[in-house]
Amino acid sequence: MHALSxxxxxxxxxxxxxxxRGIDLDVEQGDFFALLGPNGAGKTTAIGIxxxxxxxxxxxxxxxxxxxxxxxxxxxxxxGIVPQEINFNQFESVETILINQAxxxxxxxxxxxxxxxxxxxxxxxxxxxxxxxxxxxxxxxRRLMIARALVHEPRLLILDExxxxxxxxxxxxxxxxxxxxxxxxxxxxxxxxxxxxAENLCRNVxxxxxxxxxxxxxxxxxxxxxxxxxxxxxxxxxLLGTLTLAGFGVTRVDDRTVExxxxxxxxxxxxxxxxxxxxxxxxxMRNKVNRLEELxxxxxxxxxxxxxxxxx
Amino acid sequence: MSGSEVVxxxxxxxxxxxxxxxxxxxxxxxxxWGQTLVPPGVTATLYFIIFGSLIGARIxxxxxxxxxxxxxxxxxxxxxxxxxxxxxxxxxxxARFGKHIEEILVxxxxxxxxxxxxxxxxxxxxxLVGVVVTVVALFFTHLHVNNVLLIVAAxxxxxxxxxxxxxxxxxxxxxxxxxxxxPTFILTPLTYLGGVFYSIELLPPWARAVSHANPILYMVNSxxxxxxxxxxxxxxxxxxxxxxxxxxxxxxxxxxxEKGVGIRE
Lengths: 312, 265
Prior knowledge:
The complex is a heterodimer of chains A (312) and B (265).
Chain A: E1 4-12, E2 18-27, E3 32-36, H1 43-50, E4 58-63, E5 66-67, H2 72-77, E6 79-82, H3 94-104, H4 109-122, H5 138-150, E7 156-160, H6 168-183, E8 187-191, H7 195-201, E9 204-209, E10 212-218, H8 219-224, E11 228-235, E12 249-254, E13 257-263, H9 269-277, E14 282-287, H10 291-301
Chain B: H1 3-31, H2 33-36, H3 38-59, E1 61-62, E2 65-66, H4 67-97, H5 101-105, H6 111-140, H7 148-172, H8 176-192, H9 205-211, H10 215-228, H11 235-259
Antiparallel strand pairs in B: 1-2
Helix pairs in contact in B: 1-6, 3-4, 3-6, 4-6, 4-7, 4-8, 4-10, 6-7, 6-11, 7-10, 7-11, 10-11
């Protein structure tokens, strides 16, 4: 049984916009799954349908075997959602928001209080438990939404851009917390614009564009599909003449910086051997862009020609 | 889990969910008591001073009672109507506007229970305000009680009807103007013309006939009958109309929720 199974899901809005054009998607239990795509691709619509905030036009969705058309309550009980936009009552206190949310899922008040305390500690919000929600910072509000999504202890946690507008320190703390949550057995689906986040956290990935899934595979397989990677090399001494590296594409950025394009399968060691032979000393090296980002950009710019070999 | 265990578990979830919704509404009413409980008391005091003491003294008897005694049930009912309606329309539209309605929409609570939860919030506020206005009334006049059960049944049914009305208004409202339009242009005139301040026996025949099309007339008169034992309309018809409205509005509210009108794209 999959944590989430979607078949031929379509959504056409009242204004005629086709947000989803028949997507199929399976997410295994215990997976950490990335759902990526540019703005307007259909990610939030898909999540809205799964969580019953958006009415679907066609297709089926089941969560841990519960079809949302036949047993919506059981399906909803399995899901915790962290939406893109702030959607709690800004005039309620932090602990009230969590205790009430637990109540909506049938969690008795005493248990809700205990869980509220636990998640507020874990997400570093305990000191703010009596604060009115609107007084929280942006990062705190995001963490509050994560705590709220977990307070009924769902089996499937869906995060729609949870780290948008969050500083890097909090983002990394959030990643650590999500990793631990996933290790406890909670299936996680993440949408994000920080592709580094998806690459670091997720084992499987689907890329959606213009309402269609254009890639769906293990993260490692997807990254392997990159035909070339570009590295930026910082040199100790300024380059005097022309730099040539047979078999590699070289672009001179400035006197001390070059970009080297490496084809899939080629050894990076070759670059250093050839550079050393020319007396060029490299002091640092980095990827020009995040690898997933590079692939993502290529895929969505060729969305009309789907990449072959995707997971069925 | 066996079938009966599933049902029991679901019933427990729904009961806790319902209780949470009511407690949340009660907390909201209590948190903003200066907006929810005080103004009806002040307004009722002014009505009793102006219509009861100052003008009422010159009017004499109505329906066999002092004018102050005659209008007291109507004024209590008017507050119940306004506040039941106002509570649900403000709370539900506020939840839609602030998007925190999604907290409930993603939960396993069924739509009919969401409607009942918000309705219960309206009843809580309607009854609390009813008690406040009754206490104010007791400072000005003696309240004769004819039948407690009829009083309770009338006030509960009226509160249910207008809580559901507020819910439906909030579903269709697209901005804050839309939640004040119906109370200002429909509800208030109907309430004032619904026999709160007078017996329709005083009206010319055509106006009396028109008044019979006003549902609030039946609510006010059934409530007044519970206190004073006098009514301009048949009490059985009054209760039939209130029950009919309550059932119809509940059906419409649940249907709108199922369709996702105003809450789901």
